[in-house]
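Checklist before submission:
- one chain only
- standard amino acids only
- sequence pasted in full

Submission:
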Amino acid sequence: MAAEGEERVNLANVIEGHPAGSVALIDGDCTLTYGELRDAVAQRRRHLRQLGVVVGSVVTVAAGNEVSFAVSALAVLGLGAIVMPVNPLSPPPEVQLRIDLVQSKLLLIGAVGAALLEHDFGATSIDTTVALPEGLPDDLPDDPGVVDQSPGATAFYMLTSGVSGDPKVAVLTHANLAWIHEALDGNPEPMSAADVTLGCLPFAHIFGLNVVLLASLRAGSSIVLQRRFDIDESLRLVREHRITMLTAAPPMWQRWAKADGPDDSLATVRHAASGAAALPLGVFEAVRDRYGLEIAQGYGLTETSPIVTLGRGHPVRPSSVGKVLEGVEVALVDGNGVPVDIGDEGEVVVRSPGVFQGYLDDAEMTDSVLTVDGWFWTGDVGIFDEDGYLYLVDRIKDVVIVSGFNVFPAEVETVLMSHPDVTGAIVTGTADERTGEMVVAHIAGTVDEADLRAHVERNLSRHKCPREYHFLDELPIAPNGKPIRRALRS
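Returned file contents:
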């Protein structure tokens, strides 16, 4: 609850103040105006209150880019509770691990995650599992309304990685995410109520959640939802709904560049953006040459809510991730924390109102990346040019980025090592034309490859499963017991 005299902040209010008849969400044959969306969220708030959700409760939402995700997330936030989004296509054991990390009591499952309904989550902290959407009970309590929240109150738990590459839960507040929306308003090319956005980036990812879904709703824009990305369907949606804002990950842009269909498919797009991973120059050129669009890159992390730099509003430089967002401080420093000269490589450190509060229940990891005066050490290496454009050149962290999603080597290694015939496992990444990077497993042991692949596929999402397996007599391990990944990278 907000203290007396303190600013009232609740992300649930992003849908307030827009004309009731304006279109908010389009999900297949379902179209919701802002008035209808507000009513649906109020109904869901009443239902969640009946289920025992109160200020500080943690609610896991396993839904795709569907109306039920938006309605449920906004309702949870409105009650002062915390949303933990998970990939609805994740295998049940993976979802169970996420639930255990945050001690969630309630799991909401959308249509895309319907297969999860067959799993018994009784061994976790979960007390209740609810399929969305479902008919609401007739005996709902009165709508409690939107709870006044302190700006520092937690809004989302988002899965991310620490410098070690292990899965971590980033704690993001209402103020963290709302500040990004305010900063975007100051961009020379802000989003407006006249815009139509394609919601093809997963809302369980901070990029799709805050830059696409919540920022669009705050602007009063319309969002066309694509539950699962399909190349031909996405282009059809752009043409049919006259999409003006198209934000995607590099593999999506690569597939659009080569897709069947007319070359004017993206004619209504006024702003094309890419993020989550580096955009290959060849993809930039292919999209420009075919569709006449120059893709503006941006850069951000879950821990920064996520935007650090933005290409929108500036002349595009194809290899750059743009300029620092107004209100963000960025420094490039050497290993001793000393700023480097323009044109020299340095680790990217960031300070802004969007920087997260830390990793849940992990003070040691938090202290290793977040200084007492608010600087977040990203683990990424970059270069500034004379005009203030940032170029990313390397990653210190071991994360493998597959189709814009972070894959944590330690998480994959844990699953590999759980096979009884595996005695050692080191996971790395390598370049892949289709997905940007792919996961590679280096294995010691007597395990059969087909048996190991099946074991991994039962326990990990498809994008986390190694595409290549290399079986070695001995794995490179440092004296401190840590894997020497660089010795195995191709």
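Reviewer check: The domain at 401-487 is CATH 3.30.300.30 (GMP Synthetase; Chain A, domain 3).
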